Structure formats: structure tokens, C-alpha cells
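ingest -> validate -> predict -> emit
validate: passed (alphabet ok, no gaps, 341 aa)
predict: started
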Amino acid sequence: MTQQPHHSPTNDHQIQTIAQAEQSIVQPAQQSSSTIKIAVIGDVHNCWDADDAIALKHLGVDLVLLVGDFGNESVEVVRSIAGMAMPKAAVLGNHDAWYSATEWGIKKCPYDRTKEDRVQQQLDLLGEAHVGYGKLDFPALNLTVVGSRPFSWGGSEWKNTNAFYASRYGITSFAESTDRIVQVASSSALDTVIFLGHCGPKGLGDRAEDICGKDWSPPGGDHGDPDFAEAIEATRSLGKAVPLVAFGHMHHQLRHTKQQQRVPIFATNGTIYLNAASVPRIVKTDTNCLRNFSLVTLQANSVAQASLVWLDQSLTLVSETVLYRDETTSSQPHQNHEAAV
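emit:
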């Protein structure tokens, strides 16, 4: 999101409230040998530490997808993430070019831009793991991760970032951006494509509470990326399967109301669209720490289940909200438990 992340003081009661808000622990479907477990990490906004890599290994995931907004050009956070020895793919978000992509940001830049290019530093650190306008084949998992337009602010107007995209990618319009993404997807070595973006695609609803809905004044309107949406449809027309589109940017916590949260998931045409931006993703107090991850289970190149989970400081699962479940692949009944820290 374009607003600064909110980090208000927390206490044990607030942690308890977060855990209860995630409703209940639900046992996931029994996994088969063809099951792939994916962790999607929403907007980080500097909420990242060494325990995150430990937690991901503890969760036993096969692939980590990161949707960007690691911080305001926070090179050290990106350095830590890039150092994770796990299969991963990432797309940088608008905050990752906070002082470089707009005239406003350039004026506010706290470092000497003639001596440093922190956007490029982040790209260099991530290397091939950064799939914005690129791809990464994972033959062992029988899938390719394709990245949409990196550093996206969202919305249907090509503005603010025009010189930024032209200088770094040679892209000057949504049409050129769509063509670049489709070109990459068409070259994927595998027929199952997972799309990864910072902002989601246009066309998933225009209410403020929708998965990509505009929640600032005046609320309402689709703030998804039109180039992303067109690229997904064009990739399907190539005969590629697209079981998952993962992104963030539009925080679950809404700005115009505290009475509800954003709808985080949408299913259509055999594709699950997942907004993983549960922010702040780490909540700390003097006595505890909770961190969240979105977990997606793929079976036979289809999403079987998607959940939002919270782990405590001992990496114990304290809450799991099942956002989506394909009942045709589920062999376990729901088992509800009280969520408590």
C-alpha cells in the first residue's frame, strides 16, 4: 500500500484478539505424495527476523512466494530474505522503490541517489529469485512461477512511475507491460503457471472490501492491475494451467472501517486468487510473538486448500483460518479447537 505501515503498541490482550479473530484451528486435508506446500508471505513492511526462516522450515514448505513491500527500499531486510536457503520467488512492491519511482519519493529520499541505487541493490541481492517481468522454473515441483509488473502501485492509470519503468524496463504503457508478462509466461518450461505479483489483477470486484478494492477516501473502485489481468487470460489461452495467483498490496485491515476486513481470497475459472497482505505480519509484546503466513496446498496441479496461519514464539500453530478448501480433495473432517496463546 502507499501508506506507511501502522505499528501501534501491542499487548497480550491484542495478541489474544488476533488469534481469536482467526477463528479456529482446522486440521488440513491429509496430504498425498503429489502434494506441494507453498508459503505466501504478504507485505513485510520491515516485519521480518531470523525466526521467519526457521518457521518456514518448521512448516515444511516446498516453495516460498514473497509479494514485496519489504520496507521503504530496505536493503538489509531484502538481504536477509535473499539469504534463505529455500526454493523461493519474489516480486518487489511499491515501497521497495519508495524513494525512486515518484517525484514525491525522490524529493523525500534520505540517501544520496548519485552514490546509491537501492532499488538495484535489492534486485541484485534477490537475483533470479526476483521474478518481476520474469520467471523461475521449478521442475521438481512441476510448475513455473511468473512475475507480473514489479513495484506496482495498483490501479488503472499509468502514472507516477512512467520514467521509472521506461528507464529500467523499457516499458511505457499497460499494453507493453502485458506483452512482456505474456512473453515470459509463454517461455515457461512447464504447463502449470503460478502468477506472483505485488498488486493483484483488475476484475475481482470494486467494493472497498473486495480483494483488490480501493479502501481510502472515497472508498470503492477496483484498484487491480489491468496488465496483470490481461496477461493471466492470455496465458490461459496458451494452454497453461493457472491454479494460483498470489499477491498483496491491499492490506486486509481496511482503512475506512474497523467493522470488517478485506476479502482475502477469490476463486474463479479454476484459479484461486490469494491476497496475503495480513499486516502487520508480526505482532510482538514483552511476553509473546505471533507471525503469520498464508499456506497453499497444491494437489494434482490444483489448489486443494488455502489458509492463514499464526505461529507463536515457540513456532506452535495457535490459529489457522481455512480460506478455501476443495472438498473433492479433502479426506479429513473439520476439527475445531479454541485458538489461544
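The chain has one domain: 12-27+35-338.
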